[in-house]
Amino acid sequence: MEKLIITVALDGAEVTRAQNPHLPVMPAELAGAAARCRAAGAAMVHVHGRLPDGTPTQDQAVYAEILSAVRAVTDIIVQVSTGGAVGMSAEERIQPVLLQPEMASLTGGTVNFGQGVFWNPPDLIEHFARTMAEQGVVPEIEAFDLGHIENALALVRKGILKLPLHFDFVMGVPGGIAPTIRNLLHMAESIPAECTWSVAGIGRAQLPLANVAILLGGHVRVGLEDNIYYTRGVLASNEMLVERIVRLAAELGRPVAAPAEARRILRLADRNM
Ligand code: KMH
Ligand code: ZN
Questions:
Q1: 185-200 pLDDT, tens per residue?
Q2: What are phi and psi for residue 39, nearest 5 degrees?
Q3: 3-class secondary structure for 132-155?
Q4: Given pLDDT bands bounded at 50, 70 and 90, which one contains residue 270?
Q5: Candidate from 45, 142, 167, 168 with most ligand 1 atoms within 8 A of CB, to mutate
Q6: Pocket around ligand 1: residues whose beta carbon is below 6 Å from it?
Q7: Rounded Cα distance, 58 and 49, in Å
Q8: Which 3 state secondary structure label does DSSP give 66?
Q9: For the whole model, what pTM was predicted?
Q10: Architecture of domain 6-265
């Protein structure tokens, strides 16, 4: 088994500081959290832009600040969001890719998202995938449901995405796939053998699914975007969630990858060539 890549989704677009005061929002806060998570054992951050009042934004200038702030303090892999927030236009969402970060999220299909709809029709996915390829940005396929894997593989057949791909199974969004171990096994068995995957369990599903991923040879995403609690009623910080995965991985005999090792495992230098 390869070493374990821990990704931390630092802020997301939905969680507010009123819900969790540890939420990093401004570029300097995101950079500080990224450095602390790197020290704790994370190899990658997934980041969303926010305005000073916490409103989600995909503004290129905001992401430029985030990228330079994070790069100034740590060698962690930075993956920008192209999901943004429900209701944003495609052109709004794609902006951070034009800054040529190492990675960007690429959602594999439309999904109900609570009471909203996270809109990802085929032409949008294709446009985002082509833009990432043009900009030399490696996609992480966000699969909120099983069909999202099939959509990505259809783009491979069309020559728009290239194998191997890295998938993130986002499990437990109301409207998406249920966060059960059986479903995780099904997702993991549904991708080509040469692909890599991580799991992002939402809410209280984060911990059990992370444990299964450690045992299966998958990778793990934690962070306040997906889960604001450490345990019932106790608010988490991003670092606390990373530290717990590092301890669990050690107990289960799975060493943790540093960013350079994660770049090799994910073949970041070869993908998109
Ligand atoms: N905020 C969600 C609607 C991504 O970052 O690529 C979408 C999301 C996915 O967070
Ligand atoms: Zn996100």
A1: 999 999 999 999 999 9
A2: -60, -35
A3: HHHHCCEEEEEECCHHHHHHHHHH
A4: confident
A5: 142
A6: 12-14, 81-83, 85-86, 105, 107, 113, 118, 142
A7: 6
A8: helix
A9: 0.98
A10: Alpha-Beta Barrel (3.20)
